[in-house]
Every structure is written in structure tokens, then in C-alpha cells.
Amino acid sequence: MKRSIALTLAAVLAAAGLSACRGEDNSDTPANNAGGVKTDTGITKEPCPKSEHKDRGCIYLGIISDLTVGPFHALAVPITEAQKAFWKRVNTQGGIGGYDVDAETYVRDNKYNPQTHNEVYQEIKGKILALAQSLGSPTTAAILPDMKQNNVLAAPAAWTSAYAFEDNILESGANYCFESMNAVDYAKDTFKPKTVMAVHLAGDYGDDAAAGAKIAAEQNGMTFIDVKTDSGTDKQAGAVNAIATQKPDLVIITTGPADTAAVVGGAAQRGYTGKFIGTSPSWNPGLLQSPAAPALKALYLQSGPWKTYTTDTPGHKAMREALGSSVTPNDGYTSGWVWSYPLLAALKAAQASGDLTRAGLVKAAKTLTKVDYEGMLPEGAGNYAGGVDGQVRQSIISSPATGTGGADVPLVKDFFVGPTAKAYKLDKPCYEKLK
To answer: What is the pLDDT of residues 136-185, one digit of tens each?
Structure first.
């Protein structure tokens, strides 16, 4: 899943699919739009298929996620369910200027494969206004050229620092690079490590986090060791051996959750007693039911861009109410809910401007100076008008050691910015500096 290969494939498929996309336009003419608002692709005057509001039109949003066999499906399924619930809540609260929002009709599985991601994107892009979710950094990279060409806005399910430079992506929270910088700075004050190892997947997910760890380690006078690994629990022997033989004081791990259990559990069996801090997608509460649970409780901390499912904020409460008491708490739900706020803000801004076309939505997104995350992110988050300077740099640290299971991963460090992330000039994606 090399980024260059994915981008090349994207360019070829995009060129082949442009006419089909325009031929499948399910938009209204301006005369039929609610309140005279201008629209094009992905909006109809007919109500959404499951809408109870027959007097409203429909805004269609697509979702492309890892729903079955990929390494992040345990997170992606609740991410997707939370987003469905989020937009149902929006419809209950009045919709968007005479329209309900449908985030269910065009849900597709990418299997965490860039080619598959592009294929399903081509299937739905002529029917949607925007993407409520595009899961994965390398997978989203495969469609980004087409998104730019066709003014498709997306809320990502990823945190690569590359999104700071993309107008078509509405990222939320600290990126992997800043999150890892903060993790190393936190460890410096807490554990005083002298050596830092990054164990990570290749590409602009793992490489971005590793780059942040490297920058912070060097800033703090620590020795940095880079170890790339492949996805799959049966492919972690090399990473485990590197940890067991080189004995770093701190490991920043950026993999899928099952790989995290294999690495942490395997290293503990080999006698490793240092500390792990996992980048946000590396964790799933189900790991506490795995054979690696004792090692995770003893050695592992979790960094993240926002607080966990059980947190007491208006946004967290609204999420739990919308999902109902029957769901098993999982921070995939938290992420899916948080990622939806900026797209809601952009839709409202575009509707208020009288232009709900794709181009109008992208333009509206670039005017946002803040987003109301209902307390789930720090004040001032969502400054897309600020570009790179508007990036959120705060992150949190949690620990499964004292939790009661499920999504109860208690906070040990509230939102903070370490000195490395605070001073760092983000002039290009961090992963490009991992040399």
C-alpha cells in the first residue's frame, strides 16, 4: 500500500470515472431547492429513504470504512454506527435548511485496501455531496486527487499530519505526529527514558507517528530507534525481537489493535519491562479480554486526540443517548461522533451562504474559525480558516491499568501540549521527515 502507487492508481481511475460521475448526478435544479439554495451533486428534493419528514429533501453523504476483514474493523464498525446516529440526531433537530441527511444509503467497505477504497468511491461519488467518513490514511490518499478535482469534501477516520495541507479534508484532533511528540514529552517527565523505539506500520499512518516520536526524542536528547512492521498478528516476531534485544526504555507503537496485543504480549514474555504508549488507533477495549491483558495493564499507556466514551461532556452525553444503552462502549463510537461535527458546521455554513454545491461546501469549510464539538475537544478546535496554524496540538494520555474494562480507560493526563509540539513548525507532513 505504498502512497505513490495508490496516488497513481487514483489518478488513472479518476480520469476514467469523471464522465460516469457527472452522468449519475442526483441533484436538484436551483428552482427546486429549499429556500433557493444552490445545489448540485448529492442533494434531492425527494425525502431521504428512511426519513419521517416528507416535506424535506435529502443530502446524501457517503461512508467508506473498514467493515469486515481489515485490521481496523473492530474500530471502524462502531465509528460508522456512531456517524449514522449523529446524522439521525441532526435530522431530529431540524436537519440542514429544509434537508435531512442520509449517511446510510452509500456505506461501503474498503477492507483497508487503497484499491478497494478507490473502487467503491467511484461507485458512489456521483450520488453523494460529501464523505461523512473516509477511513485510513493510505486509503484516503488513493482518492484524494479525485476528491480535489471534483470538490468532494471528506471527514477522515485518520489523523495524518498531511491533512493540515488539504482543503478537502476536515480533520479533527491532534495528528499522529503531534500526538507522538506529546507522548514522548509526557514520558520524559514521567519515566525519564533515554531510548525511544517507534514500532509502526509503514505509510503515512505509522510513519507519521514515528516521525513525531523521532523529532521529540531528538529534541529531548534521547536515542531513537525506528522499527517498521507489517499488519498481522503472525508478523510481529521481528518487532518483538527488536524490543527484547535492544531494550528501549519507551516504545511508541502505531499498529492495529490486534498487532498491539501481539507486540506487547510477546515483548513481556521475552522479559521486557519498559513502557509502551500506543497511538490512538492501536487500542481497542477488547484487548483487555485477550491473553495479552496482564502485559497491557502492566506496561501500556494509550495516547489519544480526545477523551474516552464514558467522559462527562455534553457531546459525550449526546452520543451515548443517541446510541442507546444496548451498545457495548467502544471509543470507535467516540471517534465517529467527534469526526462528524466539522462536516455539520460546514454544511450549515454552506446552507447559510446559499450555496450547497460541492464547491460551495469546500469553500464554506475553509471559512470555519472554530467548530462546536460540544466539549469533546478543547475550545478553539476546528479553525480550518487558520490552515496549518489552526491545527489542534493537544492530546491526552490514558491507562487501562486501573480501568474496569470495556471503554473505561481512565485518564492520567488531561489535554496538554508538550514543549516539542508547542514549538514545532509544521511546514510539511511529518512522515516526509522520517529518513
So the answer is: 999 999 999 999 999 999 999 999 999 999 999 999 999 999 999 999 99
Do the Cβ atoms of 86 and 322 come closer than 8 Å? yes
Q: Does an H or E element contain 301, and which?
A: strand 300-304
Q: Three cell numbers at 184?
A: 514522548
* CB atoms near residue 362 (< 10 Å): 20
Grid cell 509540539 in the structure block, residue = 421
Cβ-contact 44, 26 below 8 angstroms? yes
pTM: 0.89
Strand order in the sheet with 275-278: 223-229, 195-201, 250-254, 275-278, 300-304, 395-398, 411-416
Distance separating alpha carbons of residues 12 and 178, to the nearest angstrom: 33
Give per-residue pLDDT as tens, 365-374.
999 999 999 9
Scan for cell 457531546, then name that residue: 315
Question: Which pLDDT score, from 0 to 100, does residue 285 have?
Answer: 84
For cell 460546514, the residue is: 346
Amino acid identity at 268 = A
What pLDDT does 35 receive?
67
Identify the helix (H) or strand (E) that includes residue 8: helix 3-23
Distance CA 400, CA 409 (A): 5
Over the range 60-91, which residues count as b (16 or more CB within 10 Å of their CB) and which as e?
bbbbbbbbeebbbbbbbbbbbbbbbbbbbbbb
Chain mean pLDDT for the chain: 91
